[in-house]
Amino acid sequence: MAGRTDRRKPDRRKPSAHVTAEDVARKLGLSQSTISRAFTASASISGTTRARVMEAARALGYRPNVIARSLMTRHTNIVAIVMANLVDPFYPIVLDQLTQRIKAIGRQTLLFVPSPGQDVEDVLPMLLQYQVDGIVITSATLSSTMVRVCAAQRTPVVLLNRYVPGLKVPAVSCDNIAGGRQIADHLVALRHVRPAFVSGQPDATTNLDCQRGFVTRLHELGVASCIQEQGGDYSYEAGFAAARRLARRKRRPDAIFFVSDVMAFGGLDALRQEGMRVPEDISVVGFDDVPSAGWPCFGLTTLRQPVPAMVHAAIAMLDLDGDAPARRRPATRLIMGELVERTSTMARGRHPRTRRDQPVDGRPSLSGIRI
User: Fold this and answer.
1) pLDDT the model gives residue 366
2) From the CB of residue 120, how many other CB atoms can be counted at a distance below 10 Å?
């Protein structure tokens, strides 16, 4: 009919068959194993060949099926991270370092965050259903029962930033005993005579080791007593409340060591609210060296945890490629931290020093291995 407009819609039919790796291989005259290596970041393949495969895959509309590949290879290339504490600013730093390191070795991450009050034991059974290649557990502990379950599934596990005495599972942590001793040395060198220690979670090895190193070293240096105040957890609020209690004592301390930076931040605010000057009236030390510790409003002297070295060691302990002989895998590896001196500490009877913001002792960040 004259004048009639052709309103037929364009042909949007889907391809009759799903594009496979075999189709890409046939188009390029390559083997299917070459196509598979091209989509594996850590695989050995020339840049030119990888580029050819990627271009052909785009032209054909091919996307690799990760699930199917994991069923064939029995590897998902996924490392799970269990992190129970994302409030403390130290742990997002650890998470960032972990994800970057895992990505650098050609694998992906899967993050599990237990709900408040939920035990890690409740999370791991569901996590294991994903058939991950390895598990890194931070800010949480693990029982011998779950270690056996993971071992039965041949899933390597490593604890980061803590260890469980007597548990035969690889672990990496800052040498917290040595860190506590460094802080005691620092405060005694500044002529403090009434130090206090504010603890976090009572049963955490990080807390217990810091306390043991600090108190023992004080006694060795001739400081007869140390005020020990229970914080309860590693929060700003816990540090604030503990510092306020210490500030209202009849005999106040002249220095406070908080077992985490975020607790020290709360402590600094509480002390100032109570009318005390930091560091003129009282010195304050933290532990971790999160970025905000260096802000002028805090200027916190603290023990810097060697996070990059700890993360590197933890990933190596997973032995994802199965190259490390079992006899060379230490049960627990402790890595030395560095004391960073800022304006929250000063010697008694002197004017405040200018901010140094440098490691005090200059010692290397890596210590020996403890089993």
Assistant:
1) 34
2) 19
Residue 25's pLDDT band (cuts 50, 70, 90): confident
Provide the 3-class DSSP secondary structure of residue 198.
strand
Average pLDDT over residues 301-316: 97
Cα gap 206→346, rounded to integer Å: 26
Strands 301-304 and 338-341, bridge-based pairing: antiparallel
Tallying the residues shown for the chain, one arrives at 371
Which ranges of the chain does DSSP label H, i.e. alpha helix? 21-28, 32-38, 47-60, 66-73, 90-104, 120-128, 144-152, 176-189, 205-220, 236-247, 261-273, 307-318
Using CA atoms, how far apart are residues 157 and 160, in angstroms rounded to an integer? 10
pTM of the entire predicted model: 0.77
Residues 167 and 185 placed together within one structural domain of the fold: no
Provide the domain count of the chain. 3
Beta carbons of 227 and 254 less than 8 angstroms apart: no
For residue 358, what is the enclosing H or E element? Answer: strand 358-359
CB 256 within 8 A of CB 279: no
Largest separation between any pair of C-alpha atoms in the chain: 109
Range of the domain at 255: 176-306+336-359
What pLDDT sits at residue 357? 54
Question: Bigger pLDDT: 21 or 340?
Answer: 340
**CB of 323 within 8 A of CB of 315?**
no
Question: DSSP letters along 258-306, please?
Answer: ESSHHHHHHHHHHHHHTT--TTTT-EEEEEE--GGGGSTTT--EEEEP-
Both tokens of residue 58?
């785009």
Token pair 């942590």 is found at 173
Which tens digits make up the pLDDT trace of 134-192? 999 987 666 667 777 777 778 898 999 988 887 778 899 999 999 999 999 999 999 99
pLDDT in tens, 208-224: 999 999 999 999 999 98
d(CA 241, CA 178): 27
Residues 205 and 343 placed together within one structural domain of the fold = yes
CATH code (residue 220)? 3.40.50.2300
